């Protein structure tokens, strides 16, 4: 109903999905458990890739054939991909500064609001992309710079609004802790209420605006950090999300053929009516999540953004128990 997973390539599509899901979980574990792993993943590799990207675009501007035919140059031209890659990487670096207490910034109280700021920026990048699609293709279709046909309409508007609401579903902005083992940055107040609302919104964004990638970046990429949070890394969802997102963006930017033109490629049905249903589900979920947060805050007489609103809940208490 949602994806074109059938025919001779269906088995490869499922294998590809399982591989992406498992590899993201494994890569997240390698990056989070040691300082060396995190530095390699989010400082050294992005620095090398930056040189690679600049070289490609400089050579392409000079007319070099190898650069003009480079998969990254041909298939990953959208501003969104680069914005997402570097915003996610910035988040990973900031989260490491907090959990390892790097310098005066990592030890300061004011910097604890950084996770909220960087996540809000990442959400707004996607919201802008949704609204861009609505404007460019309202009531019809438009073709992105990467040659993907997209529908524009109310589904983009509804999901864009859901994304904005999702920002306000982040509570306890300063309730950031390092775990006892110093392997995780914890945000205990970011419970299942936010996670479910976020996952539905973000899946809908990928479904609306990245129909050729959503099978992987809308399902496998979202489920990897969520599964880790629910089963063995309670309170570390936002770190899981940032780490897996940055790693995936790096892979997808360098090897676009995996999603775009291989036996693993998987298209959504790309039907505006289906998009509308998914968008309405995301919008309703975020309205309900924000309403629940405001009700809890009112009962406790607190500001849900400056104070932790989910104290006493099972998720919160399990996460805070891991804090140093």
Automatic annotation (TrEMBL):
Entry keyword annotation includes Transmembrane: yes
Signal peptide start and end residues: none
The keyword Nucleotide-binding is assigned to this record: no
Key words, A-Z: Membrane, Transmembrane, Transmembrane helix
InterPro entries: DUF5692
Membrane-spanning segments: 12-31, 38-59, 79-98, 110-128, 157-178, 185-201, 213-232, 244-264, 276-295
Protein name per the record: Uncharacterized protein
Organism annotation: Bifidobacterium olomucense
């Amino acid at each position: 109903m949602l994806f074109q997973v059938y025919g001779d390539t269906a088995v490869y599509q499922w294998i590809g999905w399982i591989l992406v899901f498992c590899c993201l979980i494994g890569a997240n574990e390698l990056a989070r458990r040691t300082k060396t792993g995190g530095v390699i993943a989010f400082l050294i590799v992005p620095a090398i890739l930056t040189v690679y990207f600049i070289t490609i675009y400089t050579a392409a501007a000079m007319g070099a054939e190898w650069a003009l035919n480079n998969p990254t140059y041909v298939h990953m031209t959208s501003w969104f991909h680069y914005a997402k890659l570097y915003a996610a990487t910035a988040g990973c670096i900031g989260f490491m500064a907090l959990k390892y207490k790097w310098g005066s910034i990592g030890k300061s109280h004011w910097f604890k609001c950084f996770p909220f700021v960087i996540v809000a920026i990442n959400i707004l990048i996607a919201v802008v992309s949704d609204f861009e699609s609505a404007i460019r293709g309202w009531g019809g279709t438009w073709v992105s710079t990467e040659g993907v046909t997209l529908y524009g309409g109310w589904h983009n508007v509804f999901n864009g609004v859901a994304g904005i609401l999702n920002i306000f579903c982040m509570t306890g902005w300063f309730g950031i802790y390092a775990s006892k083992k110093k392997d995780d940055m914890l945000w205990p107040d970011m419970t299942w209420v936010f996670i479910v609302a976020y996952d539905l919104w973000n899946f809908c964004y990928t479904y609306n605006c990245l129909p050729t990638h959503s099978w992987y970046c809308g399902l496998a990429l979202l489920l990897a950090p969520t599964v880790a949070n629910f089963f063995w890394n309670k309170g570390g969802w936002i770190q899981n999300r940032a780490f897996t997102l940055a790693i995936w963006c790096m892979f997808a930017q360098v090897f676009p053929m995996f999603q775009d033109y291989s036996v693993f490629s998987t298209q959504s049905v790309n039907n505006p009516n289906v998009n509308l249903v998914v968008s309405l589900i995301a919008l309703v979920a975020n309205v309900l999540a924000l309403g629940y947060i405001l009700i809890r805050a009112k009962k406790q007489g607190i500001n849900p953004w400056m104070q932790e609103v989910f104290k006493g809940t099972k998720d919160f208490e399990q996460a805070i128990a891991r804090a140093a």
